[in-house]
Here is the input.
Amino acid sequence: MMVLEPDFAALLGPAEQSVEGLMALEGTVYRALEGRRTIRIVRGGHGIFVKQHFGIGWGEIAKNLLALRRPVLGAEAEWRALRHLQAAGIGAPRPLGFAARGRNPARRQSVVAMAELCETASLEEVARKWRRRPPAPAGKWALIAAVADLARRMHDSGLNHRDFYLCHILRHEKTGTLSLLDLHRAQIRHRVPRRWRIKDLSALLFSAAEAGLTRRDLLRFMAAYRGRPWRALLEEEADLWRVVERKAARIARHDARLQGRLKVPVAVPDGAR
Here is the structure.
């Protein structure tokens, strides 16, 4: 199977317009893990990221199944997620091509290509800067609202990320808009189940700990994410946010720097009345 956008295909040589050719592309290696790698190539003056999956083997498949996790077998999930977000009008790299070969799930090879997002900064970088130099309140609140809106629209579209950390959200320097990255584990359904919303929200809370957010900031996030007054949420959904807090704290136990910084307003905080 192979799908290439016409403008991307025009940048490839004849030998590269095949599964074998795409799997053999070489470029600057950004990430190399067992069974897959991410490279950046430049064609026609434009940066393109190519993720090549070489098969994960039966051992890795068994390990994931024994841990009750769905194994990521290739680039298909990211290709579908990119196209889904594009159709929903949610920021993400533009999908340029996808190809796959082989029926054996342990050896199946696949590749996805996407346009590079230029002049951006990850929100992980922004959070670190905030810790050293707190931003003006208006700017901070605007970004919190934008992240909450992104999370809401993503979940309302039926997609959950499974790695919803600040490092996977980019802010465009000129427009201030946000885009999602690293969607190789994303899942798409008619409706995102509660457990997967919680997983995404707890990962986001964990990764935002270094930003020095206050409880009032988190109330703003909750209200923007749910589109309802925070007072009503604290009365009706306190259990949801307690679970989010506990899961975020479990993640933070592996990072001593963040312990003690994770606080979710499951009760009305002092000064917020």
